[in-house]
Amino acid sequence: MRVRLLKIIYHCYGGAHSSVIAAALHLKWIEKHRLPTLEEMMAIPYYDKTDNGDFGSIRFMGIDESGNEVYVLGKKGMGEKYTHILMGVAKIMGREDDLIAVDCLNRVNWSMKLGGFLSRRMGLIFPGRPVLVRGTRKAFLTLVNLVETVRLKSLRGSGV
Predict the structure, then answer these.
(1) Which residues of 31-56 are buried (b: 16+ CB within 10 A; e: fewer)?
(2) Which pTM does this prediction carry?
(3) CB 68, CB 5: distance < 8 Å
(4) Neighbouring residues of 120: CB distance < 8 A, sequence distance ≥ 6
(5) Mean pLDDT by 10 residues, the chain (160 residues)
């Protein structure tokens, strides 16, 4: 059976927090069995480092152990519509089975929203980042569960 490589796009409001943590988990850059430290989160590309110019840009994160490409995307308030747009474009190109679009926004808690707003939108790294990190750690297990589901789906999709 031919192995089909996938494009996996994790997306959230700003493309700087939940989607980036999900992609890092997917790529095994951070451990899923323990909460990441501030230093580990800050070492992840794009974590709390995006600006307005990054919205709508699909950014490459890496290749997983199965050869699938992993990306992140900030979509602002488009919600689940963005998944439909991505899947629609893939369908037009005849590649809809090669794409997994993952909405991470429903894993975001109020601490992440407030901290992300203060840090990214208002430029108030302090106090925003500590609130954001606390929220990210609180949401971590839900992101782990999401990524594990995606990883299983990607294994089925790749013919393994």
Answers:
(1) eeeeebeeeebeebebbbebeeebee
(2) 0.93
(3) yes
(4) 14, 16, 48, 50, 51, 128
(5) 83 94 98 97 94 86 97 88 91 95 95 94 92 97 98 73
